[in-house]
Amino acid sequence: MEKFELGGINIYIFPWNVIDSKTYMIIDGENAILFDAVYCSEMDAFMKKNRIKNVNVFLTHEHFDHIYGIPYLKENYKCRIYSNDSCAEAVKNPSKNLSNKADIFLMFHPDNTLLKDVKAISASVDCVLEDGQIVSCCGHSIETVILPGHSSGSTCYVMDGKYLFSGDTLLGIPTVTRFPTGSKKLFLEKTIPFLKSKAGEIEMVFPGHGEPGNISDMIKCNEV
Length: 224
Prior knowledge:
Blueprint: E1 2-6, E2 9-15, E3 22-28, E4 31-35, H1 41-49, E5 54-58, H2 70-76, E6 78-83, H3 85-90, E7 127-128, E8 134-137, E9 140-146, E10 155-159, E11 163-167, H4 184-197, E12 204-207, H5 215-220
Parallel strand pairs: 4-5, 5-6, 6-7, 11-12
Antiparallel strand pairs: 1-2, 2-3, 3-4, 8-9, 9-10, 10-11
C-alpha cells in the first residue's frame, strides 16, 4: 500500500499483484470510496482495521483486472457499484470483461504466470451513471466522464473538480485501444480533446496502472 496526500485528502493505493492494476481508496469514518476494485489481501486487512462497513466502488471500465475484487467486496461489505451502462453490461459477461481469456494479457506481461490462474468472473453494477452525472459521496463530488477508446465502457472520474481517476484511459504510456470495443478513432477524436481541455484544471491524474502524474505529461504519450 502507498499513501498519497493531496490537498488534505489521504488517497490509499492498493496494487493487484497479478497485473499491477490499482485501486484508489478514500475513507471517511466507516465509509469508503474505491476507484476500481482489485482483490488485495492487504486492502481487505486495511479496511477491517479501519472498520469500514460501506463501500462505494466507481468502475473506470469493464476489464477483469479492474473488477476482480467485486465478488469478494459484495460478500463481505455493504457495497454499491457504479459505472456507465456499457461497462455495467460488460462486467456481467466473462468474455466481455476478458476474465475468461486473461492469458491474452501475457502479450503485455510475458513473465507473469499468475495470469494463468485468473478465473472467469461476472459482476453486477448497482447504479448506472450517465455522462456528466455528479455523485456526492463521503464528502466529495465525483463527476462521471464517459471517454471511449480503451473500451466502450471506459470512464474517467473527476473528484472535487481537480483530481482525475483515469483507469486505462490515460496512463504514463500510450493508451491501448486494440482490445475488443476499443477505438483509436474515438480516442483521438473525443477523448484526447476532452483531456486537453481539462489540462488547466486537473491537479493530479491517478491512472489504472503506473504512478500518479501530470495530465499534460500523460497526454503527450498519446500525441501523434
